[in-house]
Design a protein that fits this description.
By secondary structure, this protein is mostly helical. It has one domain. The protein is built from five helices and no strands. It is globular and about 40 Å long.
Length: 153
């Protein structure tokens, strides 16, 4: 099971990130490659407390079951799941500026997210709420994998 707790999985993600270009064509969805880079950066900012996130409504048991399924079921994440407005670059997310600088910022946030010991407390996930470090590092891998696949990387 891939996770950002493993150095090899971290390196895999960073190598794939290096394949994304500003003009990379999407395989699904509406985001452009530069919007995807900013979306991933905003996601890391949110869970590390640099960006305020809203919480989606739902009951505790449903969230727990959905979290277990989303993080640990042996399948790829589906396409077309709407993102939070504060993570959507067309609504409230960070707007792309200069691609190379945006990628470098994502790499900085990735390094901070995976560094031990952490210099931040984990914030609640907008859908799953409280998560363990194991959950967060699995989520980080899956979220980046999902969007890198979106652009063929």
């Amino acid at each position: 099971m891939k996770t950002l707790a493993n150095l090899a999985d971290q390196q895999e993600i960073l190598t794939r990130l290096g394949r994304v270009r500003v003009d990379s064509a999407r395989c699904w969805g509406k985001m452009s490659a530069d919007q995807m880079i900013c979306h991933l950066a905003d996601s890391f900012r949110g869970v590390m407390g640099e960006l305020s996130l809203g919480m989606r409504p739902g009951n505790r048991l449903g969230r727990r079951l959905m979290k277990q399924f989303a993080l640990y079921a042996p399948m790829k994440w589906p396409h077309g799941v709407p993102t939070m407005p504060e993570m959507d670059q067309m609504i409230g997310g960070t707007k792309p500026a200069e691609f190379a600088r945006d990628v470098e910022e994502l790499r900085r946030l990735f390094t901070r997210f995976t560094k031990t010991p952490r210099d931040f407390p984990w914030k609640p996930h907008p859908i799953f709420f409280e998560m363990t470090e194991k959950d967060w590092l699995r989520w980080g891998y899956l979220h980046m994998d999902h969007h890198l696949r979106q652009f063929g990387a």
